[in-house]
Amino acid sequence: MTDPLKLARLLALATPLALLGGALAFQFWGGLFPCEMCWWQRYGHIAALVLALASFAFPARRWPVALAGAALGVAGLIGAYHAGVEYGWWMGLTGCTSTVHFNGGDPLKEVMDAPLVRCDVVQWKLFGISLAGYNFLVSGAVAVVIFALLAKTGGKAKP
Hints:
Number of helices: 5
Distance between the termini: 22 Å
Number of domains: 1
Strand content: 5-15%
Mean pLDDT: 83
């Protein structure tokens, strides 16, 4: 049987890596620029990734894996909040984000020509679920699995 701590560590590493990779692929190859709340979710994934990498430096410890799971859970909750804003269930805290990149030309023209990315507009969805919704489903589910696996380790691993 596989060691639950080792499996939790691998999930804590693979999930944010895959989700950040997917987000970057949608951004750079799909042309879907992130809004401000998308960035908030990415910050949670970046934190989870760093903590998961730290868990390999302390292989007998549960705390880096638990913190990575918590960061994934937070990213998932932000995704749930963002999805609610996109679907109009509640108001968001922010309105939009600009994707302006200054290339040495006229700064005012570049600002005016840059597309605005609204947090309350679904840019892409599959089966009626937005990317923020999928982030909630995946990050939340994996966070629950990580904590279930950590609970299985009991007192076998150091806190």
